Amino acid sequence: MERDLISHVAHGDHPIAAPISGDNLDRLLTRAKLPPRARILDLGCGEGQWLLRALALYPDATADGVDLSESGLSAAAEEAGRLGVSDRLRLHRVPAADHTAAEPYDLVLSVGATHAFGGLEPTLRAVHDHVRPSSGLALVGEAFWEQPPSPELLTEFGAEPGEYADLAGTVERMEAAGFATVYGHTSPLTDWDEYEWSWTGTLTRWALDHPGPDGDAALAAAREHRDLWLNGYRGFLGFVTLLLRPLTR
């Protein structure tokens, strides 16, 4: 069973695809205070939940979503049609690092998608290139270590020692890329648990309803993920989403 399909199924009951509740997502987008006719970009949009909520909050805004997931973009297009915002949403199936645009954006998002660029620093450089100078904003979500991880946890998680910093270090990394922090949200453990129980539980239910090779693969993936979470990074790995404004170039 392809990884893309596993992720699509697992996020069925938590399409935000990050350890953030819907209320906290809306609070972050509202705090952006976007101008009339804002242009919004999501680099690594997945199923487009952040963009769809942004278009609901800002009725005259337009948005571009960039992702490689065919199933994710299809789901985003379908939901945009259901919500009546298809005319304000453009979806692009290209690598996030390859997206180009004739104009800068008032808000650029990249939440939990730094892997698409090879890490936080190259993600921030790409985001900075797309943000409207001086007045634009970025919304970037990244993992950090709540507690120092053991070598065993790093190995199990597949992370390099310096891949994630602590919370202070993560803020410093983002600001070192040419941004000032104007707001932020640190996901509480309740948001993490809701996300992880949804991911593993939704995938498990799907697996039990689809006996056979795909169901077996999905069930194995759910159990492996749950074990890594409950016996590994729960309470160690945090997630912060920062609202950033570019410094004068």
TrEMBL record:
Enzyme class per UniProt: transferase
Keyword list, A-Z: Methyltransferase, Transferase
Keyword check for Methyltransferase: yes
GO MF term (any one): methyltransferase activity
Pfam families membership: Methyltransf_12 (PF08242)
Keyword Nucleus: no
Methyltransferase type domain ranges (all copies): 41-133
Biological processes, Gene Ontology terms: methylation
InterPro entries, per database record: CFA/CMAS, Methyltransf_12, SAM-dependent_MTases_sf
SUPFAM superfamilies (alphabetical): S-adenosyl-L-methionine-dependent methyltransferases (SSF53335)
EC number in record: 2.1.1.-
Transmembrane segments: none
Name of the protein this chain belongs to: SAM-dependent methyltransferase
